[in-house]
Design goal:
Cytochromes P450 are a group of heme-thiolate monooxygenases. They oxidize a variety of structurally unrelated compounds, including steroids, fatty acids, and xenobiotics. There is one protein chain. The protein has two domains: 155 residues, Uridine Diphospho-n-acetylenolpyruvylglucosamine Reductase, domain 2, CATH 3.30.43.20; 290 residues, Cytochrome P450 (Cytochrome p450). It is built from 15 helices and nine strands. Strands 1-2-7-4 form a four-stranded mixed sheet. Strands 3-9-8 form a three-stranded antiparallel sheet. Strand 5 and strand 6 form a beta hairpin. Helix 6 packs across helix 7. Bound molecules: protoporphyrin IX containing FE (HEM). Protoporphyrin IX containing FE binds next to helix 11 and helix 15.
Length: 473
């Protein structure tokens, strides 16, 4: 039995059996399943598939719920509001965690997004007060400053251009200034001249933009900033940095030791969490919005007219927290929401089933991963009746609010584990969009093309998207 020959002959078969061990589990629950291959699961071509676009096609083919095997792991994809509410909100007790994710480094693996159970809850409870209305108002001043600098830089570039406008590589341009914005708002540190080739931050930007996702500089920055704030004893705004310092001191006093929360990993990791979680998602949302309005000049003009009116009513030249109040710019906010509906940056918010669960004829076994197929859910014709593919901001105007199904707008997830930075994201998007629309007309170029990269792990990824920003007089 134990001879090497036996293993050589039967090991491949044992491995195949092991790989197929869960096949059939989803079918037994009555869920239509993407037929798995012999032992590579349902998606052997995963690395060549644009997953969020595949979800739209699968919704058309299988209906509101379907399953697949990711290797041997059963996955269920959901799109119906009732089921989403059950799993993400009402029965959160059964669906608290996300899948384990290897992000390529001890620190990065420790960010809250991938923590489980009680450890996640403690960190979330600790960080939640950061986004109260008064804190957001404080941070808004810094965000507005960054948006104005962005405009100033662009205007300067336009002065030197031959046709008066400037060609923008959307992702790179927004990402660079958003990283600067996050570091400034969260840590109070201004990144000087990020474009200078010798600048440490500039180098880090370039590494990030080349998709190497090298975050070590951010961990070092966080650690040094926390330490020097604690040493100097200064605490002013009760902002993010003060929260982290408080967290650091409590860990030092042994408060979280039984959860395995340490300074070097947990505290510093949460320091980079908001930057890592926020810059790319927001950058993609802005890129899509400007691409959409470059395609729809009449929508762009309506945004501009609304903004001019808000500025003149407020008798001001600066675009700030008060001016971007939702009631002053309902149409611009509707354009942002319609963009977020059609192009959710996080395309599959997910939960792992931690206790067997059943509801309405659907049974889900412990260990199954449930994914909210956001791109499909946000295009469900049942809830967006007059052609869900059409960019129609009116859907989100206050007078049409009653016609919207809240669980059919899934862009920020739901329940206790929804996007913690949602209000921050809206604040920064409104400030950037208003500043840009006030100063520039956005135009398509002959080389403008919106194309997605396949299989990005959490957030969607686009190929370079070029647009012209032409200054308004
Ligand atoms: C347009 C911008 C953004 C979009 C579309 C977005 C979307 C999402 C989604 C879908 C989730 C998962 C929710 C769930 O599983 O129910 C999430 C989680 C998260 N987001 Fe965002 N996000 C954005 C901006 C931000 C910003 C600006 C920050 C930080 C300031 C942030 C920080 C986080 C964090 C920390 C989590 C994990 C929450 C937890 O596990 O408790 N996000 N985001």
């Amino acid at each position: 039995m134990g001879s090497p020959l036996f293993f050589r002959a039967y090991l491949p078969l044992l491995n195949i059996r092991e790989a197929r061990a869960n096949y059939g589990v989803l079918e037994k629950c009555g869920i239509p399943v993407i037929k798995p291959t012999l032992f590579l699961g349902s998606e052997p071509n995963l690395h060549n598939t644009v997953l969020h676009l595949a979800d739209i096609e699968r919704f058309k083919k299988y209906g509101p719920i379907w399953g697949s095997y990711y290797g041997r792991m059963p996955h269920i994809y959901i799109t119906e509001p009732d089921l989403i509410r059950r799993i993400f909100v009402k029965d959160f007790d059964h669906f608290k965690d996300r899948q384990d994710m290897e992000l390529g480094g001890e620190m990065l693996n420790e960010i809250m997004e991938f923590q489980k159970g009680e450890k996640w809850k403690q960190i979330r409870t600790f960080l939640s007060p950061l986004f109260t209305t008064s804190k957001l108002k404080q941070m808004s001043t810094v965000i507005a400053e960054c948006a104005q600098e962005f405009i100033r830089d662009l205007r300067k570039e336009c002065e030197n251009s031959t046709n008066g406008g400037v060609k923008i590589h959307c992702r790179n341009r927004f990402t660079t200034c958003l990283i600067d914005m996050f570091v400034r708002t969260m840590f109070g540190i201004k990144i000087e001249d990020g474009k200078n080739p010798g600048n440490t931050f500039g180098k880090a930007f370039r590494e990030m933009l080349h998709e190497e996702h090298e975050y070590n500089w951010l961990f070092t920055l966080t650690q040094n900033t926390i330490k020097s704030r604690i040493e100097s004893g200064s605490s002013s705004t009760k902002g993010f940095l003060d929260l982290l310092c408080d967290f650091w001191k409590r860990i030092e006093a042994g408060e979280y030791s039984e959860l395995g929360i340490t300074q070097t990993t947990q505290c510093i990791a949460q320091g980079v969490l908001f930057i890592v979680g926020g810059y790319e998602t927001t950058s993609y949302a802005l890129s899509h919005l400007f691409w959409r309005i470059a395609n729809n000049p009449e929508i762009q003009e309506k945004m501009h007219v609304e903004l001019k009116q808000a500025i003149s009513c407020h008798n001001t030249h600066s675009i700030d927290h008060e001016l971007i109040n939702d009631s002053n710019i309902p149409y611009i906010l509707a354009c942002i929401n319609e963009t977020l509906r059609l192009y959710p940056s996080v395309y599959r918010p997910e939960r792992i089933c931690t206790k067997d669960w059943s509801y309405n004829g659907i049974s889900i076994k412990k260990g199954t991963c449930v994914m909210l197929a956001s791109w499909a859910a946000n295009r469900n014709p049942k809830f967006y009746q007059d052609n869900p593919e059409v960019f129609k901001p009116e859907r989100f105007l206050p007078e049409n609010k009653g016609t919207l199904e809240p669980y059919a707008f899934t862009t920020f997830g739901f329940g206790p584990r929804n996007c913690i930075g949602m209000r921050f994201a809206y604040e920064s998007m409104k400030l950037f969009v208003c500043n840009i629309v006030n100063n520039f007309r956005i135009e398509l170029r002959p080389d403008t093309e919106l194309k997605y990269k396949p299989a990005s792990p959490i957030s969607i990824a686009i190929d370079p998207l070029y647009l012209d920003f032409v200054p308004r007089r």
